[in-house]
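Translate sequence into structure tokens.
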Amino acid sequence: MIPAPATYLRAASLDEALAALAADPEAKVLAGGHSLLPVMKLRIARPSLLVDIGGLDLAGVSSVGEALRIGALTTWDELTRSAELERPALGAFADCAHAIGDLQVRNRGTIGGSLAHADPSADAPAALLALGAELELRSPRGSRTVPLAEFLRGPFTTALELDEIVTEIIVPH
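Result follows.
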């Protein structure tokens, strides 16, 4: 099936993306597209505006203090190639990351998109829940950090407000 028509915006900055989301309650964030596009094709999701954040600087993996910080636009392939993922405490999550989907999903799908979609059949949320992960969320009002256990509210349901974007995943190690 073909998705319903939507306006497309390639955000040049996080502020531009957040302003677009705040201005249109029917807008959806587009990153890798592996979660959003299939539900658009089924017309389960019918956004009036697609805010493409793929060009924003929200990718990367680093260890800061006692936590692994993963940018929301980090693809599964980038994550699995990170030496930071080799820590023994991250074993189950590392195994999960290496087994995500097929080649196309690993190369285009993002960790932030996967968590924001909250698909109950996904493996990553369970592994990250066990590790006590938190998400950093940004909106025009500022940022907030939410434990993943509170972020995930049910199948395909999260605590993400309409004008918020997942910017980072924080995993204690």
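Note: The chain is about 30% helix and 25% strand.
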